[in-house]
Amino acid sequence: AQSVTQLGSHVSVSEGALVLLRCNYSSSVPPYLFWYVQYPNQGLQLLLKYTSAATLVKGINGFEAEFKKSETSFHLTKPSAHMSDAAEYFCAVSDRGSSNTGKLIFGQGTTLQVKP
Amino acid sequence: GAGVSQSPSNKVTEKGKDVELRCDPISGHTALYWYRQSLGQGLEFLIYFQGNSAPDKSGLPSDRFSAERTGGSVSTLTIQRTQQEDSAVYLCASSLGTGSTYEQYFGPGTRLTVT
Question: What is the pLDDT of residue B12?
């Protein structure tokens, strides 16, 4: 069965510092991978997704993630944190096989705090 | 255009009561998903619809949970005889088609509190 592990339930960075949120997946075949962001009292918004084209995926708001098959990882990065990046971030996986329904399996989430 | 809407935004109910949660997807979106977000379990898939049929109900936690979709549009998630462990935020998402190549657009959720 597919699963996602996000290392660190809470990450704190200073404004302008590098953001690194870690995600590792478990799947028998390379899946589709996603990063979502959730601001307080709002739904989830897609930041970026990996579907097997380029392994370095660029998303919205300056975020990017790199798919590394050998490490089964899909870490999210941003070179310079902004106060508005404070939110909860979810990594998710979806099956790409014949049973591809789009159903998302989520990690536990990482809360990003940005300090002035 | 309008996004996914959910109602009510907040619902407080007594243990043992039935509740109905509504989701209005983006017009033209054929796929609709329900997820639950709780402190203990994180974000979990509940059920998905393709049109009016539900090919995957594997995430529904018990037979107290049911969902339907009519006219290929509005969906209702019903929880019968609510329990305190049902307290959570219920999120709905819709997409143009079925499969992971289609982006899922999420609504703001319904926060359910069972007292």
Answer: 98
Task: Say if B94 is an interface residue toward chain A (CB within 8 Å).
Answer: no
Cβ-defined contact of B42 to A106 (cutoff 8 Å): yes
Please enumerate in sequence order all residues whose Cβ is within 8 A of that of B32, keeping only pairs 6 or more positions apart, or say none. B23, B25, B48, B49, B69, B75, B92, B93, B94
Q: Which residues are B33's β-sheet partners?
A: B48, B93
Residues from chain B that touch A100, judged by Cβ atoms under 8 A, are 98-100
Rounded Cα distance, B114 and A68, in Å:
43
Spatial distance between the Cα atoms of B51 and A89, rounded to a whole number of angstroms: 30
What's the average model confidence in pLDDT over B88-100?
A: 91
Query: What's the confidence (pLDDT) of residue B1?
Result: 58
* In the block, residue with structure tokens 């009519």: B70
pLDDT number for residue A99: 67
Tokens describing residue A62: 């300056």
Q: Which of A25, A37, A104 to mutate to test the interface with B (most CBs of B within 10 A)?
A: A104
Between strands A110-115 and A10-14, the pairing is parallel
Give pLDDT tens digits for A59-83: 999 999 999 989 999 999 999 999 9
A11-27 tens-digit pLDDT? 999 999 999 999 999 98
Q: Which residues of A touch B89 (CB under 8 A)?
A: none
